[in-house]
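Field reference: sequence -> structure
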Amino acid sequence: MSKITVLPNNKTIEYVPGKSLLDILRKKDFLTESPCGGKGICGKCKIHVLKGKLPPVTDTEKIFLSSMEQEDGYRLACIVYPEEDITISLDEVKKNYKILSSGYMPDFEMNPVIRKIFFVLERPEIGKHTSYEDIFLNDANASCIEYNTLKCLPSKPGEYTLVLSEDKIIAVENGDTRDKLYGISVDIGTTTIVASITDMNTGQEIAAESIINTQKQYGLDVITRITYAIENPDDGVKNLQNNITNTLSKMIDKLCLKAGIRKKYIYEIAVAANNTMLHLLLGVAPCSIGCSPFIPAFNGSKYIKAFMTGLRLPEYTMMYCLPSVSSYIGADIVAGIYVSKIYEKSGNILFIDIGTNGEIVFSSGGKMISCSCAAGPALEGMNISSGMRAAEGAIEELHIGQGKINLKVIGDKEPEGICGSGIMAALRELINIGFIKKNGSICKEKDLSKDQLPMLWQEGKSRGIILYSNGENKIVITQKDIRQIQLAKGAILSGFFALLNQAGISMEELDEILIAGQFGSHLSAESLIGSGILPEGTENKITYIGNTSKTGAHVALLSANARAEMENLAKNIDYMELSAMENYEKLFVKCLEFPLQHVTRH
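Structure field:
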């Protein structure tokens, strides 16, 4: 048995040689960035070896590690297979991430599924043989008492509070606790998780928490996580489930502490998420989602005991998972459709959630068609050479003019990398000054102006554009990065036009475009159109509605009527498989093109 000492928290891991360092670390819940899921193709799982020997640096590692990094002891965790005692530093600094937790809130009727009834138990009269169970059921007009509640049903006269879920008694509490009725609403995104605690008597949200989805160590998109589950049939799904339930349990603990609420008064949790995340939360294998014909194990809503998933909550706490439409139109989109009420609006409306998976829903006269676009994590800064999440030190916006690049950096710090909104802004500006051609190619040296030449970067056969340079620290967008973004933007734009074609309307007949989601909220209309994600002519039709997945979960927590409406919506949203659409390949190729440059080269 060998040991790994992990700094800076100075924890020791015992391991048996034979597995990659990444596998060892994530098995012990150490968070390590791994966008590609350990395939050795992204170079993001860098670790610093401080002591001990490892096998020689591989050719793959040399692609991603500079000569200085190699000399300093940096390695890629997914490539390295340790065999003896080593000491490493993960160098993971806690950052203040920009995570959107709010969204548009619709009007709705408050009628929670969970409710409380105050009850005074009198001493039964001699000669009457009515059971205590029947006494409680009759007084609460309930259908049954949960088995675990029945085992501890009170038989002494006194004041009690009955907790009901629908018409079932799930708990009995001493005294009058009607003022203590709380629930949790959660949005589980592929990239981020947002949760809040709500007073279910008033509907008031008391505290909120957000975090990067810790499943990132298994891959940044749903496909890499599904692949992990497929390649690890014995414990893959369980590892992914444990990861998400541990994360949620810690978030709930923080929420209770922040709000000053005891966990025993949390009676329900409502969850909106994409379908893969819901499968993993419930411990259901999502493998069929990842291969043709892309059929999920379930689409419908689920209402179960929360502790059965591994969440550290009381055994009576219930969990409601919102319904999905298909494998790639999940409960997060159903929540967004309900919140935005596009099915009740007149006119032709597009709802777009831009993220690692782009989902689009078209509504006209109450009829809805949806499609899913495999955007991938590039738009959010991942799989990009200088990419990072939207945290302190990330370039989030920039403007280029008169040979100067003006950067806006989160936290007003020296740039460390570039996040998704910064990448889209960079593309917008580079297209605008003619540095990037319509086909996505970076212009050659002979075609650049004197102001532009210093921005050109070349190393071997690799070419790129320097956005920031300070000695060793260079932030570059490479030709490969541009191709990644190009594929993502082509996927979304082709989905946009495919739905309009299916509905038989022109772009001019489109009345409104609603942009939802964590990433989309940070993209200006200028960037969306300037980079070609949306076509020119739509700039005055765009409305931002925020994190509607989280808002939808909040409404579902507080309204049985809303749940019923969401479940009906999910059954009435048609789904169009883009790959099965006639001539889709031609449409996709056309949508890869960037907008024409807006300026003339000097």
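Note: The domain at 2-89 is CATH 3.10.20.30 (Ubiquitin-like (UB roll)).
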